[in-house]
Amino acid sequence: MDESGGSGQPRSGTDESTERRPDPTGPATDPTHPDAAQPDERTVDTRRADPARGDATHDDSPDPPAPENNPQDEAPQSSADTDGNGSTDRPDTQDTIPETPHSDTPTPHDHQATPHLDRTLAHSGTTKGSPPQRPKDPRGGLLMGRPFGVPVYVAPSWFLVAALITWVFGGQLDRVLPELGAARYLVSLFFAVAFYASVLVHELAHTVAALRFKLPVRRIQLQFFGGVSEIEKEAETPGREFVLAFVGPLLSLALSGVFYGAMQFVEPGTVPGVLLAGLMISNLIVAAFNLLPGLPLDGGRMLRAVVWKITGRPMSGTVAAAWVGRALAVSVLVGLPWLTQSGALGSDAVDNVGMDTVMDALLAAILAAIIWTGAGNSLRMARLREHLPELRARNLTRRAVPVETDTPLSEALRRANAAGARALVVVDADGNPLSLVREAAIVGVPEHRRPWVPVSGVAQDLTDGMRVSAELSGEELLDALRAAPATEYLVVEETGEIYGVLSAADVERAFVKAMARPN
């Protein structure tokens, strides 16, 4: 994952000097320059990769041949790149802009190439940068409450399914309790609410278990086909994964037993008796359905835990449970209509195709689609979690040059070019970082204006969320970036020193490339 070099090419790893060698990891050529159309792949960084920093020389694309021009014949661009047109007599105005986010891979931060640069203290008030702030709770419908501190939302689709349950159960009540008349729909609505209250208890069981295992829960959402507990992290052991999945169906079975026990104290032909019988059967169905051994169902997570325990690899468990889930989706699509048509589920067998048959087929298709897509999403999420550790702030950070507020933009770019840097940090007289020079803002400054434009005019003031630790990686890094959306971030060491600048575009490209890599 630790890709190096500019414009998507790896570093060559040779010992060639870089005193005046253009750096393709630097800025791309200014589009306002007459020869800006020349691609920056014309040059290859010949600096030695730094194994201590994790610089790697591997890549999916071959190395292009290095140009044969002498270093002294090439003009040092303002941010370590060339335009392919030889030298210039005015290094202070013949500037280029930092690389716009068009390269294929990010450039790791390489300090060995410029040992003469002094590090500047960030003075951020903390040795690891400001901690990432928690993003606001994701909205998922109507907020119903926060049991155990976890927000519970009712999705708009729930009102659709509540109306459907009210209509279907009301028709059944008309046959069982015809004396209710129109009031049967009120009883049916109560049943729909009570049923989803049982689903909420099922999800709360998962939530309590997750919190017990120190796993953060983002929210609970009640939606069209049941509920979802959004647990942000995976269980650390297969045993915890099994328990986390099993508690939901277990509680649904317990509720079914409670409703069965309550039925013994009421008359079987009354409204309470019918409601309790319906809730008992519905919770029994919820428990049995969720115990089916395929993702994304609870039984699939239990199967994943078992395979994980046997193989020692959580990814193997995910793959096995996901494919069983897909097979289960096909079985539901074909088997559910056949079971209802044959009378195996307790109804009378029918030979003709009627409205009930169409509804059964539609229900089977919806359930199969939910299971199939859920299994696929589980596979994608497992791949994401497997590759997330490859995203390291230290490896993705661009080298930066500190410049004072009143430094002309052309001079700042010249310094960056000479240092082989790709970013500029605006500091005060004491070396405290104040802002970051934005790539997009430099693009908008014509070349002839840059000697008269101070860097402070094209910089974005630093906020606490824009300081990230060089030690961040994986989910922690993404959480920090999500908490404070920006195009660039200041990366600091544990000691408070400036390490460099992290571009959100570099992180995105690295993430996409990691996800595309086969397991």
UniProtKB/TrEMBL annotation:
For the CBS domain, which residue ranges apply? 396-455
Q: Where in the cell is it found?
A: Membrane
> In what way does this protein cross or attach to the membrane?
Multi-pass membrane protein
The transmembrane segments are: 148-169, 189-211, 242-262, 274-297, 318-338, 358-375
Q: CDD domains, from UniProt?
A: S2P-M50_SpoIVFB_CBS
UniProt KW Membrane keyword:
yes
The biased composition feature labelled Basic and acidic residues covers 13-23, 39-61, 107-121
* InterPro entries found in the cross-reference section: CBS_dom (IPR000644), CBS_dom_sf (IPR046342), Peptidase_M50 (IPR008915)
Q: List, as start-end ranges, the regions of compositional bias called Polar residues.
A: 69-88
User: From its record, what is one biological process in GO terms?
Assistant: proteolysis
- One Pfam family of this protein, by short name? CBS
Q: Which cofactor does it need?
A: Zn(2+)
Stretches for region Disordered: 1-142
Question: Which keywords belong to this entry?
Answer: CBS domain, Hydrolase, Membrane, Metal-binding, Metalloprotease, Protease, Transmembrane, Transmembrane helix, Zinc
Molecular function terms from GO: peptidase activity
Family that this chain belongs to: Belongs to the peptidase M50B family.
**The protein's name in its UniProt record:** Site-2 protease family protein
Provide the species name: Streptomyces coerulescens
The beginning of the lineage is:
Bacteria, Bacillati, Actinomycetota, Actinomycetes, Kitasatosporales
